[in-house]
Design goal:
The chain is α/β, with parallel strands linked by helices and about 450 residues long. Helix content is about 25%, strand content about 15%. It has eleven helices and 14 strands. The strands form two sheets. Strands 1, 2, 4, 5, 6, 7, 8, 9 and 10 form a nine-stranded mixed beta sheet that branches. Strands 3-11-12-13-14 form a five-stranded mixed beta sheet. It is globular. The structure holds calcium ion. Calcium ion binds next to loops.
């Protein structure tokens, strides 16, 4: 919906002899915007999303009447640090595949922080530094790093208290959690016993082929082969960190209620990228499996948003135009990202019929509501999965003769779709490497001694 009333009022005031009567109704204040972005949060890791283990009572309550995107994804990454292109895309609404020129993002292009500030908002971003271009973060009125969820909540709460009236608020809490080395206070670590945590259905000791990124930093946070003991211990710390983050989100919610802002606030909750934790033998965000780095949680809640959920495909960076449209700010022209508001508001079932994701020059994927094709150009390997019968991508159908036409169809769709996002990396290379992979036995692949998780009373 476009904000017609303010424009009409301005038009009337511009006419000679017309003035606003003193008792004329003032246009309703724009809703506040609260964007809660976790670091490496998997797509199902909130209680309200149906996760069987992790406890997130504050977010569950906050989002109980929210609208869930079950198929939200990061477009891709040109780096092992998937966070960086993901967060840059959120702030620019542009495909990372078009942002690789020297000099980075052009300063004249619109950005999330500037667009929302220009609409009259007071804004703060509190969260991890160095996870995206500093210039974009500095465009907020305040840009701070609280060090952990407690510090970031303190910063946000302080900002709420100082900005009690007048401008609507844009609060971007970019928490460090649950990224490793996980931080939580002791009580949260005690909530999760590794022995009671199930392994993923598609757990493997290691991935038996070279996906192009087998020994990146995240993969070396545990030794190979992965074991039940070390994967469930990692999951326990991960869940503890999510519950700790949730507790601090609860403090922010309470502060919004105390200040009288809560009822007029739109909340967006998401993760900057997904994360494998034992699925397929992988541990990082450097893969394009459904349990990998690109699949993320995305939930909207607040005034005008009805309870519901969709399997419509969404890109995470579409939060930028979506937030604009939900509060009546015109979406800047020229963005790659499209507003999800028509889906949230039930005016449109979906924005697209397929989802393209990418990782560096070594992995490309395309999926629709049933089929998924993954292409590994550097080892000349293609995988095909039937997600309806095989949601965990355990049975690769690519070698079957009856798969030939589906592979051809999806490969053509992949070629067409990726060009729309500026992707030019080849799907076929001239000297592919051998596909097989087994864990390093020379110690080179063994992890450094993990840093002890920081603890705080
Ligand atoms: Ca991240």
């Amino acid at each position: 919906m476009k904000p017609v009333i303010p424009y009409l009022a301005a038009l009337l005031l511009a006419l000679p002899g017309v003035s606003m009567a003193a008792d004329a109704p003032t246009p309703p204040a724009k809703p506040n915007l609260v964007f809660l972005l976790a670091d490496d949060l998997r797509p199902d890791c909130l209680g309200m999303l149906g996760h069987p283990v992790v406890k997130t009572p504050n977010l569950d309550k906050l989002l109980e009447n929210g609208f869930i995107f079950r198929n939200a994804y990061v477009l891709g990454s040109n780096s092992g640090a998937v966070c960086t292109p993901s967060r840059t895309m959120i702030q620019t609404g542009m495909s990372y595949l078009r942002q690789q020129k020297p000099g980075g993002f052009p300063p004249e292009k619109p950005t999330l922080a500037r667009t929302i500030k220009a609409a009259g908002y007071a804004s703060i971003r509190s969260g991890k530094f160095g996870n995206g271009p500093k210039r974009l973060d500095d465009e907020f009125d305040r840009h701070l790093d609280g060090g952990n969820a407690t510090g970031n909540a303190d910063n946000i709460i302080g900002f709420i208290k100082k900005n009690g009236g007048g401008k609507p608020l844009f609060l971007y809490m970019a928490s460090h959690e649950p990224h490793d080395p996980q931080f939580a206070t002791d009580g949260f670590y005690r909530m999760y016993q590794p022995g009671k945590i199930p392994l993923p259905a598609n757990f493997l000791p290691f991935l038996p082929f070279n996906n192009g990124e087998m020994t990146v930093r995240d993969e070396k946070t545990l030794p190979w082969p992965r074991t039940r003991e070390n994967v469930t211990a990692k999951l326990a710390r991960y869940y503890a960190s999510i519950s700790y983050w949730d507790s601090q989100v609860g403090r922010v919610i309470a502060a919004l209620k105390d200040a009288g802002h809560f009822d007029n606030t739109i909340f967006v909750v998401a993760g900057d990228n997904g994360l494998s934790l034992g699925e397929h033998g992988l541990l990082g965000k450097q893969n394009v499996y459904e349990s990998g780095g690109m699949h993320v949680p995305l939930v909207f809640a607040g005034p005008g948003i009805k309870k519901g959920e969709t399997k419509a495909f969404a890109y995470l960076y579409e939060v930028y135009p979506t937030m604009c449209e939900l509060v009546g700010i015109p979406v800047p022209p020229g963005l790659d990202a499209r507003s999800l508001a028509p889906v949230i508001q039930g005016r449109q079932a979906a924005l697209r019929e397929s989802m393209f994701t990418a990782y560096r020059n070594c992995q490309r994927a395309i999926r629709d509501d049933r089929w998924k094709l993954i292409r590994y150009p550097l080892i000349d390997k293609t995988q095909l999965f039937d997600l309806q019968t095989d949601p965990h991508e355990m049975t690769d159908l690519a070698g079957k003769p009856e798969s030939t036409s589906k592979i051809r169809e999806l490969t053509a769709l992949l070629e067409k779709t990726r060009k729309e996002f500026g992707d030019t990396a080849p799907l076929v290379v001239s000297n592919p490497k051998p596909a097989g992979w087994s864990p390093p036995n020379d110690g080179m692949g063994q992890p450094k001694k993990p840093r002890a998780a920081q603890r705080k009373k």
